[in-house]
What we know:
It is built from 16 helices and 15 strands. The chain is α/β, with parallel strands linked by helices. The protein has a domain at 197-396 and 404-474: Dihydrodipicolinate Reductase, domain 2 (2-Layer Sandwich), CATH 3.30.360.10. The strands form two sheets. The chain has a nine-stranded mixed sheet with strand order 14-13-12-11-7-10-9-8-15, with helices on one face. Helix 8 links the parallel strand 5 and strand 6 (190-193). The termini are far apart. Mean pLDDT is 89; it is low at 1-41. The protein binds nicotinamide-adenine-dinucleotide (NAD).
Amino acid sequence: MADDPRKPEDEAAGGGRTLDRRDVLLGLSTVPALGLFGYAWRKQRSYEQQQREMAEASRPAPAPDLEPIDVALIGAGAQGQVLLDAMLRIPGLRFRAVCDIWTDFNLRRAVNTLKKYKFEATGYEDYRELLDKEKKLDAVVIATPDFWHAPHTVAALQAGKHVYCEKEMSNTLEGARQMVAAARATGKLLQIGHQRRSNPRYLHCREKLIGEAKLLGRIVTVNGQWNRAVAPDLGAPDRYLIPEARLKQYGFRTMHEFRNWRWYKGKGGGPIVDLGSHQIDVYNWFLDAVPSYVIASGGLDYHDPKTHEWYDTAMVVYEYETKQGPARAYYQTQTTNGSQGYFENFMGDQGTLVISESEANYPGRLYRDPNAPAWDEWVQRGYVTAPKVVEKEEKEDASVLDVRESVSPDEHRVPVVLRDPYHQPHLENFFAAIRGKTPLNCPAEVGYESAVTVLKVNEAIEAKQRLSFRPEDFEA
Ligand SMILES: NC(=O)c1ccc[n+]([C@@H]2O[C@H](COP(=O)([O-])OP(=O)(O)OC[C@H]3O[C@@H](n4cnc5c(N)ncnc54)[C@H](O)[C@@H]3O)[C@@H](O)[C@H]2O)c1
């Protein structure tokens, strides 16, 4: 396969790819503030390396009749690199350009990564120049900070490109509305990066287990969380600082704000938006509804208010009116303790589903309520694994079991595992939609519903009140 245009030169020469000095230097894009440099850098590097190895492990050759799609990436930071690694596994893509304002660092790294796969991508600092000069582009993938999503997406759509834009769709509803309007006006595709909507495990749970087999019965309560341990602020080495004038030109007051934009008002939305949006989007999707009310408590309880403007802790209850009846969904995110990570837990009157994007930590478990009809048929059909009976531990000194106590339900597993990088199926869905082979799994309107649901939490925390959603709030 010497002529595979996506093969990195060092691998084509034999052997696997190893980190070279440039990788190490360029990988510094994710370093934290000095002092905690080593810890977070190593952690981030090992994640990026793992993703890259997964990407390199399987790079199928495109079918000979597959018309290439010409692609550009805008925003080549941590997530831009993850998306790039996933895209490099997808046949039939031709990378033409990358845009990033951190030109000496993230831009250079992405262009160099592509060079290793024999793509001569042109680097740009300004997205307008990219859109102006790269006339052959079919699609633009956007992974810039949330407050740039609307300007970047609208400009790319208006330039006639299909767009994959990362979540949160925008940090404002006005921005999100402009994106929906631009997609409609141009007739171009706009996929929002809620990648769980293309994850085969999530699809199996929603369509087969909840939809067809109805294993949960009526879902009445939901809970979920993203708990994250205290992490140092992100920093940058002195020699790669961006000049102040350029930072200001692109809306950042300081290098700290540039690196930690998630925490700043007007740039991101804090952890509830950054982390919560993924899972709250799943609440809407699995319940097949949008909420009617939200109540939330949150605050900046721990982090330094000089460098953190958004709430570091949020505890939220949504009230839904689903087709089956009322449902309540609790969600929490906090950034001071990473215990039990992130998952979603759907509880019906016949069963419970615990699921997470993190297959390693939560491999999709189902519990049949002892009063529910047998699941034998669904085990035989391969929808769920055979049950593992959860025995009560017998201990001599154990307290006496109260006869009124519920019997532990049997534990089943979801037998569908995603072996590709998390974002690959969602990107594949986007490119297949461009080829006219499938509808988008998260089109603009769906991303908008999710943005309305999530952004309201910060409003509810501020208001200290139960806030209502009107049906028309979800229409862009
Ligand atoms: N879907 C997911 O699982 C997931 C995971 C992480 C992040 N994200 C999303 O991806 C986006 C980027 O997050 P990140 O963690 O990569 O942030 P980041 O700060 O690491 O990267 C952002 C990049 O955008 C560049 N940039 C900033 N303003 C720009 C502009 N005007 N023009 C061009 N480039 C610009 C920066 O230089 C940086 O390289 C966010 O919207 C985030 O919510 C999604």
